[in-house]
Amino acid sequence: MCRIGAIKSKDFVHPSTALCLMQSQQKGHDNSGFAMVMQDLGGVFADYKDKPLMSYACTDAGVKIVEDFMREKGFSLAFHWSPKKNDATGLDIELMQHYHFENWDYPKLMANAPQAEKEELLTGIRLELRRVLEDAGDKIGFVYSFWPDVLTLKEIGNPKDIGTYFDLWNKNDKLMAKIITVQCRQNTNYDIVRYAAHPFFNQGYTVLANGENTFYVKNKECQKNLHRSYIGFESDSQCFLYTLHYVHRQLKWPLTYFKHVITPLPFDQIETRDDAQVLLSIRQSLPHLEINGPNTIIGVLPDGTMINTCDSKKLRPVVIGREGDTVALSSEVCGLNDIMPNRDASKDIYTNERETVIINNDLEVLRCKQ
Amino acid sequence: MQTVKINDITPNDLPWTIEWSEDKCKMCGSCTAACTFGAIEAGVEGRGVTFSEGVAPNPQAAAKRAVPVIRQVADIKHRCTGCGMCEKVCPNRAIRPVRNEDNRWNFVNRSAGMPKRGGRSNLGVEDRTLDKIVVGRISQMTDPSLDALRHTFDMRAPFGRILPPEQLPLSVGPDGTLQMDKPLPTVNWIYPLVFSDMSIGALSTRCWEAISMATAYLNEECGIPIRMCSGEGGMPVSLLKSELLKYMILQIASGHFGWNRIIKAMPDMVADPAGIIIKIGQGAKPGDGGLLMAQKVAKHIQAIRGVPKSDLLSPPNHQGLYSIEESVQKMFLSLNAAFKFRVPVAIKTSATASSVSIYNNLLRDPYNIVGGYLIDGIQGGTGAANEISLDHTGHPVVSKVRDCYNAAVAQGRQGQIPLWAAGGIGLTGNAAADAFKVICLGANGVFVSKILLQLMGCVGNDRGRCNACNTGLCPAGLTTQEKKLVKRLDIDKAAQNIVDYVLAFDSEMKKMMAPIGNSSLPVGRSDALVSTDEAVANKLGIQYAC
């Protein structure tokens, strides 16, 4: 199964820390892929926080399509960065020709538009660009995210080699972030494509999961009608992102109700609650967003809040540890031991089956019972 | 010269013939007394007798003797239905009905110039769609199965209108929690198996009482929130005024039988019924009305229905209702208003090529009060419908449920109008497997009825055995109001059989939910199913496996 991890810190963290977090868990995944989302960026992107950052991987033809498309839409390139690549022989990685991370200036007409309008524009551009790339041919290019202050890297291959290729093992000050979510992949249950790797990102929300979503078909059938950005579904874990996005952003329900949607309380327990009416109404209106498989879910909200929750039977492991100004989440405790050797392990949190753990930007850890 | 009798009906023209063994018969008369159809009679036949006298064999022909015999009555009205009561009561197993493959039934049974009633679907039980579907997605390693005995399961299905999430009257309160600003349409969460609509006129009082006893027992002793639909025709006033009314779903059909009494009882009701079903049509005889034969209209039925002893016809449509959009909604409004919007109101139609259109209309319900859609398929129904309707009209339910669910999915409205399926669920005795598969295809739950009769002792089947529910002569005491026959039914045993079956059903459902990793009902989990028939797989949109 996949191994997942997340780091949230008051200081900037280099991806090498995330790689170390995952390295000791290598027996728990099959070296088939690696993905990472970095938010609240420092390093070379520190000066461009307000400009949407596009993360994509392309062939030559794909790059031309992206550039032409963006210019046609009125965007102008503000900053371009590609990681230093290490073309050592023998690396287990399915390479694309180009890996681009580009900050774009909004079209002039949109420069002073309200935030909500800008967000819709960015979402539309990403969706349209993805479709254009897919229409242009198989595996021409993949656009992962287009959002201010968010960088996404996904690749098929051995995570260790992917780290080597992108020079992620060498700690430097170019690529830094305060939030890093990361996954080392087990082959996905559905199509093995780059998009299938989580973390998944949509409109400021990031989600990654360790587990199986047995309600994938139900979730997908329901979600595809809920929002235009709910597309793809290359992985059963993608559904968790859309549910979080839907509950929190679209329905504007408090964060703790995400848990009530994905793993509602049994009817006999609902009946004993003071808020039975509310919980019952949620359960009966959103049964198709329930999950029933084993899962650990890590999510990041647009404001940087990080959450963790599990399936209602607690079938998948996760542990949360803290050292100094950094909190980290990991599928296995050995990951925490590697990057936080001096932490007080007795204070580690093993999120339980009815709990949502919320970590705010002051790194306060809140444990909410469902 | 004597007339040649070649045009007369003989037992060989009838679907069943009686096999009687003179050697074993002790002429006790049990069989003729038990045969409610008058298909056998005691008679006398002239026989030549050979006898022997003396110490050594010395056969001699004697004069003819009159010998008592049991013989089959060879006329259409008193034909043998194959019910086998004679065999059941015979102490020596000297008599039994035998299916007559060479019968001329289809040619002789229309002799009175009227369509014949009584029968079952001719679709048979061998070629069912549900039997071509198996559960294929079994959770194993990364996605563990549940333990059917140790895990808890939420075995509940909605009955009532469910609002889409964005229409929920929720707001964030000062303490950061969601609060409900106004009441929602009533939704009752009930067991996904409902005892379907068979009226107190169609069934014997004891039979109906046995089902209602089983319902109450399952609810109060077993914790299974099962519901029973009254069928058209109302129910005893004592029950209407009882707390137990909460386990009943009242039905209003086109004849509106019994509703006068129900309405009069409303001020004295101490509990709300679990729901109301407006029956537009039924799968056994789609487009045809219900008919309670005059011979079954006993005094108590006359009292409940408020009509004298005569054939009671429920017309094939609700008079005055011309479209789903207007008329049904008006009924829904008035019925909802009658119970002050505390009781969900659902609608039942037979499965038809237009089921999806109906469901689409219901999904657009602007009043948010359509509490459910029950589709009744061709394989339902007992023996009281016209044979011609049973055999040649109707629509299987499985693909219609799937089509309706898919239509809802396409609109993002799945689950908002609960979808219930009936008609052939449990036809082979495996109701849990059937229910599980239909639920995976999109239903929220199922209605069953015929299987209840069979649990209580009905001997009829879909191959033409008995099926005389319309005659008022039910040999098992189930579908008759004849006092002597009704007494044949052991009410406690009948209720016990139903309770036992539902308990087994509950275990079996969990045994099927466990391997796919579901602790709640697998509504719409079509990915859990595969079909061994490519056409079925394609039609239902599930995997094909061979």
TrEMBL record, chain A:
Residues 2-362 form the Glutamine amidotransferase type-2 domain. PROSITE patterns: GATASE_TYPE_2 (PS51278). It comes from the Bacteria. This is Glutamate synthase. The lineage of its organism: Bacteria, Pseudomonadati, Kiritimatiellota, Tichowtungiia, Tichowtungiales.
From TrEMBL, chain B:
It catalyses: 2 L-glutamate + NADP(+) = L-glutamine + 2-oxoglutarate + NADPH + H(+). One of its GO terms (molecular function) is metal ion binding. It comes from the Bacteria. The keyword Iron applies. GO terms for biological process: glutamate biosynthetic process. [4Fe-4S] cluster 2 binds at residues 80, 83, 86. Keywords: 4Fe-4S, Amino-acid biosynthesis, Glutamate biosynthesis, Iron, Iron-sulfur, Metal-binding. Gene3D superfamilies: 3.30.70.20, Aldolase class I (3.20.20.70). It is an enzyme of class 1 (oxidoreductase). Residues 16-45, 70-100 form the 4Fe-4S ferredoxin-type domain. [4Fe-4S] cluster 1 binds at residue 90. The keyword Translocase does not apply. Its EC number is 1.4.1.13. InterPro entries: 4Fe4S_Fe-S-bd, 4Fe4S_Fe_S_CS, Aldolase_TIM, GltB, Glu_synthdom. Belongs to the glutamate synthase family. This is glutamate synthase (NADPH). It comes from Tichowtungia aerotolerans.
